[in-house]
Amino acid sequence: MIYFFFYNHLMDEDLIRKLSNDYFIQNGTVHVETFDKAKDKLFIGNRSLLLHGKLVAFSSIPLYSILEKLSLISDIKYKNRSGYILEEINVHTQKEMIRAYIIY
């Protein structure tokens, strides 16, 4: 099982289905330093701000395939960005905490 925390544009299930039809989704939150939605800028840093999003679990697709498919979705690309960071982060759901990937 591969977990991702999606926020901003990727909270849209139509976009998530472009990655795979075999997934489970639930609400989640993460602690970040800042998130500027207007500029599409996220900083993990000291983790003083709560960011709401979707925790998505993929069961039948490898990580590299998810990343490859994400790179093809133009609706989610940051403007004026040439690279991204993939990091693991603690995601809090209603029942538990799960380690998941976040891209920023």
Task: Explain how this protein is built.
It is built from 2 helices and 7 strands; from the N terminus they run βαββββαββ. It has helices at residues 13-16, 63-71, and strands at residues 2-6, 23-32, 34-36, 41-43, 49-58, 86-92, 97-103. The mean pLDDT is 89. It is globular, with a radius of gyration of 13 Å. The strands form 3 sheets. The chain has a 3-stranded antiparallel sheet with strand order 1-5-2, with no helix packed on it. Strands 3-4 form a two-stranded antiparallel ribbon. The longest helix is centred in the middle third of the chain and has 9 residues, at 63-71. With 104 residues, it is mainly beta. A hairpin with a 4-residue loop joins strand 6 and strand 7 (97-103). 12% of the residues lie in helices and 43% in strands.
Which helices and strands, and how do they pair?
Layout: E1 2-6, H1 13-16, E2 23-32, E3 34-36, E4 41-43, E5 49-58, H2 63-71, E6 86-92, E7 97-103
Antiparallel strand pairs: 1-5, 2-5, 3-4, 6-7
- Percent of residues in helices comes to 10-25%
Indicate the radius of gyration in whole angstroms. 13 Å
What amount of the residues lies in strands? 35-45%
CA distance, first residue to last residue: 21 Å
Structural class: mainly beta
Number of E strands = 7
Please give the order of strands in the largest beta sheet. 1-5-2
Q: Outline the low-pLDDT stretches.
A: none
